[in-house]
Design brief:
The protein is mainly beta and about 250 residues long. It has no helices and 21 strands. It is elongated and about 80 Å long.
Length: about 250
Amino acid sequence: MLLAAAAFSCNKDKMFVYEGAPLIEFGNPPSNSYTRTVYAANVPVADSQLIQLIGRQVSTETKIGWDTLNSTAILPTDVEAIGAYGQASIPANASQGKVAFTLKPTAAGKKLNLVLKDGDVKASVNGKNMTLNVTATPIDWKDPLTKTVKPTATTGNDTMRVRITAAAARFKQDLVFDYTVKATSTVVEGTDFTFVTPKGKVTIPAGQGEGIVVVKFNPVAATRKLDLLLSPATGISVSVSRNTVSFTVNP
């Protein structure tokens, strides 16, 4: 990256600052590799890629172009630009801007290759390409996957949690995932138990990584089971080994 760098002599520090013509490049991860993993979901989700100015800030907006190149994530089928396609900018008196876009569920498993194009300033030769690897958001039930309960007339509610297992997969909007009551269940809804949270839905709030399913069990005369199965969907990846949570309800 052509950023300000420091060099040191044996007696005195010397600071060398880039004084060439201003350039714009993609902001790259700490690995200094112009690739990044981004996450799709079961609904369209907003994301963006940082761009940065090399050189001094200016008092006016700096406009630059962008395009896609040899991408398997296709616009607008899999990805949509937020704002005008191919246009990005860095605000006045700032050093950073962004290329903003919406990832659709069908983008999962594909690549979005972005390339900066010359605008008010030139794009850096070394930093004008960015590859975004679009990955399905991984979800599963959080431990414990099995639970035994013995409800009484005064027993409280029981809670199970669904989690997004990738720490970087956090979104600016609520995500709602589906689950079903498996045919292996022997409890009777309305008699043996009721859902406190909306049936068949679990919501993970914006910016968070977990959501809850809350169930209220009633006393039973014989042992019964409740098995809940996370539903697969385009844009998410449900762990096969952790897609079911089971309650054993004892009298």
